[in-house]
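Deliverable D4.2, example record:
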Amino acid sequence: MLLEQHIEELRAELRNAVYSDERHEIEVELELACAELAVIMAEQEGVIDAEPPF
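Output generated by the structure prediction step:
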């Protein structure tokens, strides 16, 4: 739940960002957080294996 809250906070920050460099930093952080959430969801659904190959 914390990661999902963080994503929502980043989206709110992005809506209010004025400067392009600030927007870019938030966009990058948002993209990383969304990717992390996607991996977590895939692991939970059994789509991917969290263990590295041998």
